Amino acid sequence: MLKFIAKRLLWMIPALLVLSFLTFVLIQLPPGDYVTTYIATLSASNEVIDQNTAADLRARFGLDQPMIVQYWKWISGILLHGDFGLSFEWQQPVSGLIWERMAFTLLLTFATLLATWGIALPIGIFSAVKKYTVGDYIVTLFSFIGLAVPSFLLALVLMYVAAVKLGQEVGGLFSDAFVTAPWSFAKLWDLMQHLWIPVVILAVSGTASLVRVMRANLLDELHKPYVTTARAKGLSEFHLLMKYPVRLAMNPFISTIAWLLPNLVSGSIIVAIVLNLPTAGPMLLQSLMTQDMYLAGAFLLLICMLTMLGSLISDILLALVDPRIRLE
Amino acid sequence: MNTMPLPPASSRPVLEVRDLVTHFPTRAGVVKAVDGVSFTVHAGKTLCIVGESGSGKSVTARSILQIVDEPGHIVSGAMILHWPDGRSTDIAQLRNRSRAIRDIRGRDIAMIFQEPMSSLSPVHTVGDQITEVLRLHLKLSKAAARARCIELLGQVEIPNPDKAIDRYTFEFSGGMRQRVMIAMSLACNPMLLIADEPTTALDVTTQAEILALIRKLQDQHGMAVMFITHDMGVVAEIADEVVVMYHGRVVETGSVDTIFHNATHDYTRRLIGSVLKLEQKAEIRLARAPLDDAAPPVLEVHNLTMQFGAGKNPFKALDNVSLIVKPGETLGIVGESGSGKTTLGRCLMGVYRPSGGQILYRRADGTTMDVLQADKPSLKAYQRDIRMVFQDPVGSLNPRMTVAQIIGEPLYVNNIAKGRALDDRVAELLERVGLNPDWRERYPHAFSGGQRQRIGIARAVALSPRVIVADEATSALDVSLRAQMLDLMMELQDRLGLSYVFISHDIGVIRYMCDRVAVMYRGRIVETGAAGQVCDAPTHAYTQALLSAIPRPDPRARRMHERFRYVA
C-alpha cells in the first residue's frame, strides 16, 4: 500500500510539469496580454497611454520575452523559491492572494459537503427503501425542485429573506466590523451567521443528484442475496440495512471525492459572485478576464494538483473501505 | 421388495407445513408461486424438496422464514414449529418484521443458500458475519463469540480457523465459502436447517464433501434438514423423505425409495425417467453405424500450452495438451472448475493465443492449415468453420437484438446473405432447431431457457460450420430439457456432418452423447478414451476419484460414502 502511494506520488511530478507547461500555453493563447487589457480599461475612462509607456510596462512585466523564457522564469521561481510570481492587477505576490482565499473556500466546501451528505444520504436511503410510495414521490419532487432552481436565484431570495426578514447583514463571509479584526469567538459567530446562506444554496442544488445516486445504488444492493442471508439470520431490518446494503452503496460516493477537490477552485463561481464571497472562484474568473497570467496560472496549476491529489485520496479511501480492492 | 424403513414413529416432527399459499402479485396478474403445499419435517431426518426451475421450491423455503422477496407474501396456510419442550408456534401467523419471527430466524431455523459468493457480504470479514448471529441470539460477549466462531470454523473443517476468521469471503474457494455459510447457520444449533441448492454451484468432488459435512453435523446435533435441489442424484444419496413439486403444488410425497422405484404420479415418473435417460448412451447413438476410424482428423492439437501471467507466479491453464477431433464425432472434455477445459475451448476458437503448441485444421478440401501461424484471411475462414455454443442462454444473447438479428448476424457480417435471402435462411435455421419461424421478430426475453439455448445453437450452425465447441451448453437447463437439447444437437450432427467438442463437468451428459472423452485435471489431459470405457471403467486414478464422487440416482445403491480423493 505504501509502495503504491509512493509510486503514485512520484508519477505526479512529471505529470505536473507537463500540465504546468500546458497551463501556461493555454493562458497565452488568447490574443493580447495584460497590458492590452490594462490599456483597454484605461481608454474606457478616456485615458490614453502611448506606445512607449506600453512597451515600458511590457518590459517591466517581462511580457516582451519569448514565451518559453517566460515559462522558465515562472516555473523555476515556483520550484526554487516557492514564488508564484506577481499578480499584475493586484500588484501583490500571487501566493499571498491565493492562500487566504483557499482557506475560506476549503471551509465553505467542507461545510457544504457535510450538509449535502447529511441531507442527501438519509433521504436517498429512505426513498430507496420506500420505493414508489408517497414518501418517495414527495422527497423526489423536492429534490428535483432543488436541482431545477438556479442557484443564483436562490441566492438572491435567501439574501432578501436574511436581510429584510431576519435583519442580517448579507454578502461576504464577515460583517464589515470583523473583516480585518483578529480571530475571536465573536468573529467565529459572525462567520457562522454568514456561512449558512451559501451552504444552504450549494447544498440544495447538490442534494438532488446525490439523492438519486444513493437511491439507485441502494436499489441495486437491496435485492442482493447477502441481504436475504442477513435477514435469515434474524437481524432487524434497520440494523441489516445499515450494516450491509448501505455500506456497499456508499462505495461509489468515495470516488466522487476525486472531483470534489478541483471543484474547490472552479465550482460555485456564480453563487460566490452573487454573494460576494472571498473564495477562489471569482478571483480565478477575474484573473482570466484581465489576463493576469501569473495569478490565473497559479490557480490552474492548483486545480491540476488538486485533481490528482483528489483521485489519489479517493483511491486510498476506496482501498480502505473495500477489502476487494485492498487485497488485489 | 427391498424398501427403506420409514422414519420410526418416535421421530418428532419439527415443522409441519399445512396448505401453504404464497402469491406474487404482478402487473400481469397473481403468480401462485406456492399453491397449497403441505409436508412435515422430522427431527434428525432429511426431507428433500425436488422440482424444476419455477416449481416453487425455493419460495416454499423462503416462506418458512418469511423472507420472500417483495412483492411476494404468504396468503394462507399454517407452519407449526414444535420446540423440544413441547411448545409450538404457527410461524405463518407472525408478522414478517416482528421480534418473534426474528428470534426464530437464525436461532431455531437457519438457512444456507445456493451461491456462497453472493450470499455473503464481500466487505465484511467471515468472523464479523458469523459472530453477529452469536451476539444477536445468544448474547455472547465479543470475546466469547469470537472463540465460538473459531470453534465453528474448525467444525466445518476450514484449515487454520484462527486465521480464517479475519479473512474475507473472496479469499476462499467456492467450497470453503459454503463451509463458512454452514458454520454461520449452525452457530446457534438450530432445530431445522433449510438448504436451498447448497451444492449446485460446486464441483462434484466439493459437493460430495459438503454433503458429507452436512450429514455429519446433522448426526451430531440431531437437527432436521430440509434440502432443496433439482439434482435427483443428490436426492437419492441423502434423502429420507422426498416432496416432488410442480407448478407450485406438491404432486407426490414419499420415502426416497418409493419415489425412485415406485412413484405413482406421472410427473415424478417422467422426472426420474429423464434422469435415468442420462445414465446411459443415447438411443440415437446406439443405433448409429460406427464412425470411420480411418478418416483423417479434422482438428489435431499438439502440445498446446497456455500460460497466464508472467514473473513469479505464472499460471499454466493448459499444460502440454494433445488431442484429435475426428469428423462426425463428439469429443467430450470433462473436468472440474479450474481444470482448463474452458481455456482449451477458447484456444480452439482462436480467442486466446496459446503460449506454445500447434493446432492443425483440415479443411473440407483435405488441405491442412496451422491455426496459430495463420494469416488474417485464413484465420477468418477458420473461424467460420468452427463455432461456439455458450453456457448461459441469457447472457450470450444480446437482449436488444431480435432473434432474427441474432441468428442472421454471422451470415450478414460474413456477406453470405442479405435482405430476403437472409430472412429465409433465418426462418429455415429456426425450423431446424425446433422453433416456430414466425417468432423471429421477438426479443430473447420472450423465450424460455431451453428455447434460448436453441437460438444459440441456430446461431452456431448458421454458417454451416464443421466443428462446434459447446462449453457447458446444457448446464443451465433443467434435467428434462437437457436430454432434449442433446438429442437435437446429435440430430443436427448427423444431418450436417458436424464434429463437437463438448465441454462439460456432467458425466451423465458426456456418457449420453460423446463418442470419446478426454479427462482434464490441472491443465493436463490425464486420460482419453471411448466414452463408455472412461465413464464405466476409468484407468486413471483421478478419473476414478471424480466418478466416485458423483451421486447415482438410485437410493438403493448409495455410494458417495465410498468416494475417495485423488491426491496428485
Keywords:
heterodimer; A: 328 residues; mainly alpha; MetI-like fold; two-stranded antiparallel ribbon; 77% helix; globular; B: 568 residues; alpha/beta; Rossmann fold; 3 domains; six-stranded mixed sheet; 20 helices; 20 strands; disordered N terminus
SSE order and pairing:
The complex is a heterodimer of chains A (328) and B (568).
Chain A: H1 2-28, H2 34-44, H3 51-61, H4 67-81, E1 86-87, E2 92-93, H5 94-129, H6 134-148, H7 151-165, H8 185-222, H9 225-232, H10 237-243, H11 245-249, H12 251-266, H13 269-274, H14 280-289, H15 293-321, H16 323-326
Antiparallel strand pairs in A: 1-2
Chain B: E1 13-26, E2 29-42, E3 46-50, H1 57-65, E4 73-82, E5 88-90, H2 99-104, E6 109-112, H3 126-137, H4 142-155, H5 161-164, H6 174-186, E7 192-196, H7 204-221, E8 224-229, H8 232-238, E9 241-246, E10 249-255, H9 256-261, H10 266-277, H11 283-286, E11 299-308, E12 315-325, E13 330-334, H12 341-349, E14 356-362, E15 368-370, H13 376-385, E16 386-389, H14 403-413, H15 419-432, H16 449-461, E17 467-471, H17 479-496, E18 499-504, H18 507-513, E19 516-521, E20 524-530, H19 531-536, H20 541-548
Parallel strand pairs in B: 3-8, 3-9, 6-7, 7-8, 13-18, 13-19, 16-17, 17-18
Antiparallel strand pairs in B: 1-2, 1-4, 4-5, 9-10, 11-12, 11-14, 14-15, 19-20
